[in-house]
Write a structure and sequence with these properties.
Elements lengths: L9 H9 L5 E6 L4 E6 L7 H9 L12 H18 L3 E8 L2 E8 L6 E7 L6 H10 L3 E6 L1 H13 L2 H5 L2 E6 L4 E6 L2 E4 L7
Parallel strand pairs: 5-6, 6-7
Antiparallel strand pairs: 1-2, 3-4, 4-5, 7-8, 8-9
């Protein structure tokens, strides 16, 4: 017999339900009987905060895990919820030419893709990299497993993909929870390298 699903914490469930909507709220002070209408406006986070939050993702995928679809879907849901918490309109299967992007964080005001995320747990993330570069987001995120992380980093160093496009890419290893941020061909953030 299957275990019944455990319901979300009520606060989390409410946040998930209303986080895609910006609504006017009332601030009320009981002691003075004063109130004020407040319109919520999104305040987009800095690129640094977004990188930190994505790097701290709790979900990991074992390097030997074969059930790619389940792991892929778990990561997509987590990244989509994360985008909502930053006040982005998050879209899955976002069209990019003839292909689809796993998750797009879209600025609500401009409708521009600010963060483009592709999760590639298979064997060849290079095609996904081109999809990310073509879209030209503020931050492209490519999430891969351990073996692909090292190979992709080597390919980036040898190629002109990012240099020609002046693109910012976060390469995330979801097996070992490590990452690097590359702009052009310069490493701008690598937590495994200590700075003096």
């Amino acid at each position: 017999m299957e275990n019944p699903p455990i319901p979300d914490d009520p606060k989390v469930a409410v946040f998930k339900a209303v986080s895609n909507y910006l609504v006017t709220s009332v601030a009320y002070d009981c002691t003075t009987d004063a109130y004020e209408l407040m319109t919520l406006k999104p305040s987009l986070a800095s690129l640094e905060k977004i990188v930190e939050r994505i790097a701290s993702i709790e979900l990991t995928v074992k390097p030997t895990e074969k059930a790619f679809k389940a792991a892929h879907d778990r990561l997509l849901e987590e990244l989509k919820a994360m985008g909502l918490s930053f006040a982005y309109d998050t879209r899955t299967e976002y069209p990019v030419g003839p292909d689809r992007l796993d998750v797009a964080w879209v600025n609500r005001a401009t409708q521009n893709v600010e963060v483009a995320i592709e999760v590639e747990l298979g064997s060849n993330p290079t095609g996904e990299l081109w999809k990310l570069v073509e879209l030209r987001p503020g931050l492209a995120v490519l999430a891969v497993k351990r073996k692909q992380y090292d190979l992709t980093l080597t390919r980036l160093a040898k190629s002109r993909i990012l240099r020609d496009e002046a693109q910012t890419l976060m390469l995330l290893d979801v097996s070992e929870r490590r990452f690097v941020v590359v702009r052009g061909n310069d490493i701008v953030r690598n937590p495994s390298i200590s700075t003096p």
